[in-house]
């Protein structure tokens, strides 16, 4: 009988894991993260630049591409980037949040190895530590279909990434120290479009042609409405799902969300205003960018198109966003061939957000637990079996108890099909994101959720996405197939709320512990804190 040593077997398994994705093309990126001067509102600010750019470069990729991104941290403090919407199948190691990945120390680098496996669509990346997101370091990330997979609309004449978001004149350190002192954030000073202030961003179109705009809200808290003077936007894709192609005169984009629309330059030749304004906020803030016809010699003028004001308008728009069941997604078969509405859910998780004071400071919580990070990523504590956190430290339902601090990790079984209900009993908008997954948004409505609410679910053509809004004193229900082993961050996209505890991790676990279900720890994984002296491979 032949016997193999453990390292030998491990090497075989690693080669197997690598060869699985070895068929697919590689794209290499070398990024240098620095501080630099930016002037989005005309006054000097300290921004986080990637290769000298603010916002960072947009990543172009094709379904199944491997993205090898070497991030050099030239900031004087630790840094990490995370990938909003990139599912990183079997690979939460690369997620780039503090629960999964050690920070890149100043002057050092880390090479992310991501694969946009079985994905299409519009996403973005952002810096995940501290309050870095308030200073830049974000950019667009698009995944286009492979050449032979049909896309349900003619190839557009151009493809523009439009990153919209609220913005502060205060720098990220002063915003963060405000939160650390237990205070809330002030209202933002402005809205930026691709890192620029009023009329700083422009998009050129040839008259008569149709363009794709990929719009992401990369801001810190405000839901935004976008509209274009004289033009309709035909919605075609939401975070990786091809939608029924409805036309909208304006679109609500909540924090962390991404939408693709088609715009046809079918108006008289001149320039037009693109208007982006806040929704549901205490203060109304508005900015403009320019849609430029290439043959135009007239500047944009005239009254700006007004935006919606009612919450119900937004709820109705959200409900009108449906999956085109016959269109292809990342694979040639129609998106509707997975009948999620026929799958029995085995578990209901109800997540209620709340705000409260803990030790005299403002905090935010999920089912009463206000998340506190550990100095060592939970994923590494788990892998090296070091302990230091408790699986099951957050309940499946609101307990109604007073908010308290803990490192909340929820246990979940690989392949379970679960219902998650986000319950918002507060009077402000919420936006929730789940790393590693897309979920079907089966329902949303006002007041309290109850089992009877299921009667109104859309079990046919709900859109599958990774970030969903919850209206004030309302609920949103999603279905998710837990088919991605790993440790995944579930968070508020309101950055101050996330920073002050409105997040937790879900540990999707398979007792088989096979590399078929989860990749081994990356050879180049940085180790830190309690596991700093360990090794990613046996010596
Ligand atoms: C990053 O940029 C800084 C400032 O320009 C430079 O000093 C440093 O050498 C660069 N690092 C890398 C790895 O390119
Ligand atoms: C850091 O970058 C170098 C090349 O500049 C690369 O060889 C090395 O693997 C990177 N380190 C990590 C941890 O990814
Ligand atoms: C759905 O996709 C199909 C297939 O590409 C397309 O023919 C049809 O027009 C689309 N329907 C809607 C409502 O967008
Ligand atoms: C950030 O803002 C604070 C308060 O205005 C200021 O003291 C600090 O110097 C600023 N930091 C940088 C790096 O500009």
TrEMBL record:
Coiled coil residues, start to end: none
Q: What is this protein called?
A: Laccase 11
| InterPro entries (UniProt xref) | Cu-oxidase-like_N, Cu-oxidase_2nd, Cu-oxidase_C, Cu-oxidase_fam, Cupredoxin, CuRO_1_AAO-like
Looking up PANTHER family in the UniProt record yields: MULTI-COPPER OXIDASE, OS04G0561900 PROTEIN
Family annotation (Pfam families): Cu-oxidase (PF00394), Cu-oxidase_2 (PF07731), Cu-oxidase_3 (PF07732)
Signal sequence, start to end = 1-22
**What are the GO MF terms of this UniProt record?**
copper ion binding; oxidoreductase activity
Keywords on this record? Signal
Q: Which domain of life is it from?
A: Eukaryota
Q: Where is the Plastocyanin-like domain?
A: 33-146, 159-296, 402-511
Which family, according to the similarity comment?
Belongs to the multicopper oxidase family.
């Amino acid at each position: 009988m032949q016997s193999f040593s453990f390292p030998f077997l491990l090497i075989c398994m690693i080669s197997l894991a690598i060869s699985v994705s070895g068929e697919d093309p590689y794209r290499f990126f070398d990024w240098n993260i620095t501080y630099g001067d930016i002037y989005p509102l005309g006054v000097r600010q300290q921004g986080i630049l990637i290769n000298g750019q603010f916002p960072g470069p947009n990543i172009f990729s094709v379904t199944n591409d491997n993205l090898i991104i070497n991030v050099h941290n030239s900031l004087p403090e630790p840094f990490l980037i995370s990938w909003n919407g990139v599912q990183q199948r079997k690979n939460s190691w690369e997620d780039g949040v503090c629960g999964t990945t050690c920070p890149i120390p100043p002057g050092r680098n880390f090479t992310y190895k991501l694969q946009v496996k079985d994905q299409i669509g519009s996403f973005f990346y952002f810096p995940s530590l501290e309050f870095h997101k308030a200073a830049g370091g974000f950019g667009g990330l698009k995944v286009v279909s492979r050449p032979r997979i049909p896309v349900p609309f003619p190839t557009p004449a151009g493809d523009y990434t439009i990153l919209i978001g609220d913005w502060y004149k205060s720098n990220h350190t002063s915003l963060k120290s405000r939160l650390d002192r237990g205070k809330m954030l002030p209202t933002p000073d402005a809205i930026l479009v691709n890192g620029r202030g009023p009329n700083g961003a422009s998009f050129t179109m040839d008259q008569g042609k149709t363009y794709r705009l990929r719009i992401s809200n990369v801001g810190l808290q405000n839901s935004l409405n976008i509209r274009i003077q004289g033009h309709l936007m035909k919605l075609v894709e939401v975070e990786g799902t091809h939608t029924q192609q409805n036309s909208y005169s304006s679109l609500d984009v909540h924090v962390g969300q991404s939408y693709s629309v088609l715009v046809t330059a079918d108006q008289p030749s001149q320039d037009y205003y693109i208007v982006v304004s806040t929704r549901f906020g205490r203060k109304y803030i508005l900015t403009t960018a320019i849609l430029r016809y290439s043959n135009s010699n007239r500047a944009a003028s005239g009254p700006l198109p007004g935006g919606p004001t009612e919450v119900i308008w937004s709820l109705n728009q959200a409900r009108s966003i449906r999956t085109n069941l016959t269109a292809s997604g990342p694979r040639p078969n129609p998106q509707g061939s997975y009948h999620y509405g026929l799958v029995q859910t085995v578990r209901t998780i109800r997540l209620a957000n709340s705000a409260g004071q803990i030790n005299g400071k403002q905090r935010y919580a999920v089912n009463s637990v206000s998340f506190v990070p550990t100095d060592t990523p939970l994923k590494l504590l788990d892998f090296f079996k070091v302990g230091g956190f408790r699986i099951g430290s957050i309940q499946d339902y609101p307990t109604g108890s007073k908010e308290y601090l803990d490192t909340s990790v929820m246990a979940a079984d690989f392949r379970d099909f679960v219902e998650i209900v986000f319950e918002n009993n507060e009077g402000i908008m919420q936006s929730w994101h789940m790393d590693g997954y897309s979920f079907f948004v089966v329902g949303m409505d006002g007041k309290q959720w109850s089992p009877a609410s299921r009667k109104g679910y859309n079990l046919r053509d709900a859109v599958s996405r990774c970030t969903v809004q919850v209206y004030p004193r309302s609920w949103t229900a999603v279905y998710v197939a837990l088919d991605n082993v790993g440790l995944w961050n579930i968070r508020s996209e309101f950055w101050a709320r996330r920073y002050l505890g409105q997040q937790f991790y879900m540990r999707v676990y398979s007792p088989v512990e096979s590399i078929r279900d989860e990749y081994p720890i990356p050879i180049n994984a940085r180790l830190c804190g309690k596991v700093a002296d360990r090794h990613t491979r046996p010596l």
